[in-house]
Write a structure and sequence with these properties.
Length: 246
């Protein structure tokens, strides 16, 4: 039975393992407990013969706000890389569903899903550059999905964009209204057919891990350790503008 106080809940719905991010007090940020909870849920689903797919969803008005900047020992680039790779390598297809806000590392989580849907109130933003950081590790899953010109714009500006634009950029597969049909299609498929089809579609993303993961993790660690990022994070937590904002 899932611990009611845990930040991740797991339930089952006709062959779909529903993994719910349930830490609304910190906007489902990537705390160590949340990351380990998602990893455990993926492992459980992988070993369940009756499970056809995983639905990764959330409670509250935010799918995931990215790193938990309030943790004493926040999730590092190695842990985030491992989580993203686990989503991509899972033999069971993963469908990400957001009906709320997705920020920073949460975009990497959504992009790691094989299929992603978004409701009309969903919003998206790469906020890292405004904090003195960069979308380093999440680029492993984001850049293979997004159109290059869109990635350039939103990485650099930190602008908020909506669900329709997320679909146009390739970050999201479809609107939330498509979810039932997607899940029914997955339920109709064979376990072997799903696993082998996913192996084909995920190959390019896994190549990005093999090629770039170490360098991007090093970049992330270097930026988080910088004085400029420390000031950016302080400004964010104190809800004030960073000193470089004009």
């Amino acid at each position: 039975m899932t611990d009611p106080a845990a930040p991740v809940r797991v339930s089952h719905d006709r062959g779909i393992a529903v993994v719910t991010l349930d830490s609304p007090h910190n906007r489902n940020a990537l705390s160590s407990a949340l990351v380990s909870g998602v990893r455990a849920a993926l492992d459980e689903a992988a070993g369940a013969p009756g499970t056809r797919a995983v639905l990764l969803t959330h409670t509250g008005n935010t799918f995931c706000a990215g790193a938990d900047l309030t943790e004493r020992h926040p999730t590092g680039p190695a842990e985030l890389t491992a989580l993203l790779r686990a989503l991509v390598e899972s033999p069971k297809p993963v469908v990400g569903r957001t009906t709320g806000h997705v920020r920073a590392g949460g975009l990497g989580l959504l992009a790691a899903c094989d299929i992603a849907v978004a409701g009309p109130r969903a919003t998206f933003a790469f906020t890292e550059a405004r904090l003195g950081l960069a979308p380093s590790v999440i680029s492993l899953t984001v850049l293979p999905r997004m159109r290059p010109r869109d990635a350039e714009r939103y990485y650099l500006t930190g602008e908020v964009f909506d669900a329709d634009q997320a679909v146009r950029t390739g970050l999201v597969s479809a609107g939330d209204e498509a979810l039932d049909g997607i899940l029914d299609g997955l339920r109709a498929a064979s376990p072997q057919g799903l696993a082998e089809s996913k192996r084909l579609t995920g190959a390019a993303v896994l190549r990005s891990f093999d090629r770039d993961a170490r360098v991007l993790a090093e970049q992330s660690a270097r930026l988080f350790a910088s004085a400029e990022a420390a000031e950016g994070v302080r400004a964010f937590l104190e809800r004030r503008e960073a000193p470089w904002a004009l």
